Amino acid sequence: MEKLEETIYNLVFKGNVTIGNEEIITNARHKEALINAKKYMESVVEAIEKGYSEDLITIDLNSALNEIGKITGETATEDVIDQIFERFCVGK
């Protein structure tokens, strides 16, 4: 057990663990929003390549922005707000 503790200490507290330039997603709701945003953006690229009208492209583009807004709080729906406050003790 001591060897394990020492190894963890050396990796974490002595800076031997690095993540590089990658971002870490620690929230399942954020991960879901990013996955959805990516899907919408892939649809946008496909629609542009196929020459679809700007009106149709805008639908998926707005959907992608709404997904990102769920993370930044700019387009938080009532369901998202409820999920956030479920995890915190407000007013106690």
From TrEMBL:
Which cellular components does GO assign to this protein?
A: cytosol
The UniProt record lists the MnmE helical domain at: 1-89
Question: A GO biological process this protein is involved in?
Answer: tRNA wobble uridine modification
Residues annotated as signal peptide: none
Which branch of life, at top level?
Bacteria
What InterPro entries does this protein's entry cite? MnmE_dom2 (IPR027368), MnmE_helical (IPR025867)
What protein does this entry describe?
MnmE-like protein
